[in-house]
Amino acid sequence: MIAALNPEWTSILKNEIDKPYFKDLSLFVDEQYSKHQCFPPKERIFAALNNCSFNDIKVVIIGQDPYHKPHLANGLCFSVNSGMPIPASLQNIYKEIQKDLTTTTPAHGNLMHWAKQGVLLLNATLSVQVHKAGSHQKKGWEQFTDAIINNISTQKEGVVFMLWGGYAKKKGAKVDTSKHLVLESGHPSPLSANRGLWFGNKHFSQCNNYLIANNKPKIEWTK
């Protein structure tokens, strides 16, 4: 499994990869993919990392699980493959971008254009079995992704962490707020958004203003 992770991130996470739990996790994931249909495709398990260089990270968005229905998950949280219907949470993300930045939003749900600008779209769990939400939780992924967040928090400065919903807030609770901007709100899912916990958070303009103030290029959220 680890062969799918690029050399840069393999080096950064070497201490984590060498731990016994990660070896057990790798065996579990390999077995699951050999016996069941799992998502994202195995070669895209580490897509969030492989498409966003550590040195280029400007923003971290934390999700929970990959989509567990066929043809959706592409390894980036909240993102789906081009040509697939845009999920409800991402529709609400787009609505907030449109209102916050007074702009149009893409007609597709593939967020690779964010990743290429330095937005790390990190799920807490990087794989899942078809039609079984949460099926790969508590197998080691959470410890691994905690290590990723900790490395970013300790080794970088001026990163924007977007923590949407209780799970993401807990996941990012140890981010060093003296070095980074942490933006929190409700989750963009319809349940949370319709209760007034998502819309109007203005995270996207706050993010760009912070990046510009720290002499970094803003994110083109609509490209």
Word description of this protein:
The protein is of the alpha/beta class. The protein is built from ten helices and six strands, in the order H-H-H-E-H-E-H-H-E-E-H-E-H-E-H-H. Strand 5, helix 8 and strand 6 (181-185) form a beta-alpha-beta unit. It is globular and about 45 Å long. The chain starts with 6 loop residues before the first helix and ends in a 10-residue tail after the last helix.
Can you tag this structure with a few keywords?
4-stranded parallel sheet, two-stranded antiparallel sheet, 223 residues, alpha/beta, globular
Overview in brief:
The protein is 38% helix and 11% strand.
- Helices and strands, in N-to-C order? HHHEHEHHEEHEHEHH
Physical arrangement of strands within the biggest beta sheet = 3-2-5-6
How can the largest sheet be summarized? Answer: 4 strands, parallel
| Structural shape | globular
The total count of strands amounts to 6
Average pLDDT works out at: 96
